[in-house]
Amino acid sequence: HTSAAAGVAGMIKMVLAMRHGTVPATLHVTEPTPQVDWASGAAKLVTEHVPWPETGRVRRAAVSSFGISGTNAHVILEQAAATEAPSREDRPALAGALPWVVSGRSAGALRDQAARLRAFAAGSQDAEAVDVGWSLASTRASHEHRAVVVADGWDGFLSGLDSLAAGEPAAHVVSGEVSGASEGVVFVFPGQGSQWVGMATELLRASPVFAASVERCAGALAPHVDWDLLEVLRGGGPLDREDVVQPVLWAVMVSLAEAWRSVGVRPSAVIG
């Protein structure tokens, strides 16, 4: 018995039934029991797959979970609203370097994983580098032995994975081993003195997420200052003024944090 998970299989089954528009047959039964007066009500036994009836309303279903101790939970499911899939043509082209993260429980496992990823990348016709990077960062477990391959195209990723699989150093590959327990990533925002003329201009061009965040920060600052954030970042404003540099650094750090979050690096804390 699945104990506390009783009912999960039924819920998954019903979600799939909604998705495919099919009412699945009840398992392990061929005819209704004669102990029930089926003619007196609207319920009937489903002995074969049938199309989900079209009623002009969203699909809804009820799932009961009967625990082995006699507990009962009831869940009402409703069909999700239709969403339009994002178009590849609408996405900006990859500009600048991108990280691919790899990990393993041992140094050998890390090399093996790099070899498997290299084989996938070499044989894939449809995969996008940014999609692979996102999946590696956000959907895979992070084990003790880790590495990052940083590149701006397939050739760079393939050569980096070759080096990693062979246990050889490469300029665009960083590897290491986790030491001690970790409570998660912490972002540290620097204080005044870390600025320079032209900082963040490359990210403004290369990262749509970073650029959108900077624009939001510029809008938030505009009613309170007599200078333009984007103009200052591009070298056209008084970056040497204390009342300018501190808000500018704040905007850059907030936007940099958003850029990291967009590729799956989510901080447990932010300080500075």
Automatic annotation (TrEMBL):
Annotated keywords: Multifunctional enzyme, Transferase
Origin superkingdom: Bacteria
Pfam families: Acyl_transf_1 (PF00698), KAsynt_C_assoc (PF16197), Ketoacyl-synt_C (PF02801)
Protein name as catalogued: Polyketide synthase
Chain ranges of the Ketosynthase family 3 (KS3) domain: 1-79
GO biological process: fatty acid biosynthetic process
Gene Ontology MF, one: fatty acid synthase activity
Organism: Streptomyces sp. ID05-A0197
Gene3D superfamilies membership: 3.30.70.3290, 3.40.47.10, Malonyl-Coenzyme A Acyl Carrier Protein, domain 2
Entry keyword Transferase: yes
Keyword Mitochondrion: no
InterPro entries (UniProt xref): Ac_transferase_dom_sf (IPR001227), Acyl_transferase_dom (IPR014043), Acyl_Trfase/lysoPLipase (IPR016035), Ketoacyl_synth_C (IPR014031), PKS_assoc (IPR032821), PKS_Beta-ketoAc_synthase_dom (IPR020841), PKS_NRPS_Biosynth_Enz (IPR050091), Thiolase-like (IPR016039)
